[in-house]
Here is the input.
Amino acid sequence: MTNNDIFKKLRVALQLRDDQIVEILQLVDFRVSKGELGNIFRNEDHPNYVECGDQLLRNFLNGLVIHLRGTKENPKNPMEVIKSHKNTPPKEGSIKTEEQPKKTNFKKSETGFKPKPKKKPFPKKEPIVEKVRFKNGKNKSKE
Here is the structure.
């Protein structure tokens, strides 16, 4: 099992997003961009795949301990932290999941488009071929 596999499994098990992983790594003064993380989580046969080094995984695990347990001065309950991962929305600038569309009121003269005409339902066509009973030689009556 490679470091990439371990990192992926921890990310899924703890339900972490890329921005949360970056914050965890910043707790131990280790800087990584989201793009670099994306390359680590790629498939092995992808051209942009990057192997996760020992230093990155070690710093992530040390930061994860601080993130979940807290420090000696400010301890935390790890289960509450994990439950909060589900409830926290992504920060601005990261991927937005549930974004409401903007409502804009355009006048006809502004857009230059004509409204689409309402479609009329097509009349049902009568079948061209009538029902035919095939006599293919089966069930012949003996004469």
Observations:
- Helices lie at 3-13, 18-26, 34-40, 54-69, 78-87, 108-111.
- The CA atoms of residues 49 and 58 lie 20 Å apart.
